[in-house]
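Anyone up for a design puzzle?
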């Protein structure tokens, strides 16, 4: 079976998000923003996983599009956590780099899939 890099990266990112939420809850006593980023950050991978089981290319495209929206939401929550001083610059930079890499991969997947649907 061929390795799906996007699926693996999104899964590893979801694990980081779970650990981030645990840190925010335990160390920072922050429960509202952590819940938001937990939902969006773990939903990226679950939507990509669901896309793999798509009934057709259009269904695949729809699920990847939703994953992309969750990635952009996660990017927002990361910036908010940094600017509200729940994350230091090092934590933020590392998580943001992973998030942006996934965003780029999702954008490329969307473009490629749209082209195949047009042909």
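Challenge accepted. My sequence:
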């Amino acid at each position: 079976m061929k390795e799906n890099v996007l699926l693996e990266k999104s899964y590893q990112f979801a694990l980081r998000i779970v650990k981030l939420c645990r840190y925010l809850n335990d160390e920072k006593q922050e429960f509202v923003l952590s819940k938001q980023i937990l939902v969006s950050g773990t939903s990226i991978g679950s939507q990509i996983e669901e896309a793999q089981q798509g009934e057709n290319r259009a269904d695949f495209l729809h699920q990847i599009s939703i994953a992309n929206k969750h990635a952009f939401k996660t990017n927002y929550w990361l910036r908010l956590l940094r600017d509200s001083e729940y994350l230091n610059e090092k934590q933020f930079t590392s998580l943001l780099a992973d998030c942006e890499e996934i965003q780029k991969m999702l954008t490329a997947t969307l473009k490629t899939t749209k082209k195949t649907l047009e042909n």
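A detail worth pointing out: The domain at 5-118 is CATH 1.20.1440.60 (de novo design (two linked rop proteins)).
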